[in-house]
Amino acid sequence: MRVLLDTNVLVAAFIARGNSNEVFDHCLTSHRLITSIWILDELEEKLLKKFHFSKADVKAVVSLVSNNAEMSEPSGLDGKVCRDADDDNILAAALAGKADCIVTGDKDLLVLKDYRGIKILSPTDFWEFEGRER
Question: Which domains does the chain have, with CATH numbers?
Answer without folding.
Answer: 2-133 (3.40.50.1010)
